Amino acid sequence: MLPMFFWAFVIGGLICVIGQLLFDVAKLTPGHTLSLFVVLGAILDGLGLYEPLADFAGAGATVPITNFGNTLVHGALQEAEQHGLVGVLTGMFEVTSSGISAAIVFAFLGALFFKPKG
């Protein structure tokens, strides 16, 4: 069990280091970095590389935002096999709707209990 925690920490940390380097060295904004990570996760899933990474690193690969891109493409490809072109759109929304809904609900609750700025 200890190696699983170790590799989750290392892979998740490497993803964070890449993000920090994009902020500090490349001077990318948080929005650009977020978009880049989502697209990178989508590309890695399209190439069939993200699933083995997630199996190896566990939460180190499934918690960062790269997993959102992975989930979008994975759902789209899965539904496209069954329902064709319409499945591409419905698959993306079907697989990611719970995560998006949870983010909206928790953001709303956070705004109720804390004083948001801006």
State the oligomer: single chain
According to DSSP, the number of beta strands is: 0
What ranges have pLDDT less than 50 throughout 5 or more consecutive residues?
none
Number of helices: 6
Task: Report the C-alpha radius of gyration, rounded.
Answer: 16 Å
Largest sheet: none
State the distance separating the first and last CA atoms. Answer: 43 Å
Structure description:
This protein has 118 residues and is mostly helical. The protein has one domain (1-113). 84% of the residues lie in helices and 0% in strands. The chain has 6 helices and no strands. Helix 2 packs across helix 5 and helix 5 (66-83) packs antiparallel against helix 6. The chain is globular and about 45 Å long. The N and C termini lie far apart (43 Å). The mean pLDDT is 88. The chain crosses the membrane at residues 6-26, 33-50, 95-114. Keywords: Membrane, Transmembrane, Transmembrane helix. InterPro entries: Spore_V_AE, SpoVA. This is Stage V sporulation protein AE.
Summarize the structure.
The protein has 118 residues and is an all-alpha fold.
List the main descriptive attributes of the protein structure presented here.
118 residues; mainly alpha; 84% helix; transmembrane; Spore_V_AE
Protein topology:
Layout (H helix, E strand, L loop, with lengths): L1 H23 L5 H17 L3 H8 L1 H4 L3 H18 L1 H29 L5
Protein name: Stage V sporulation protein AE
Pfam families: SpoVAC_SpoVAEB (PF03862)
Keywords: Membrane, Transmembrane, Transmembrane helix
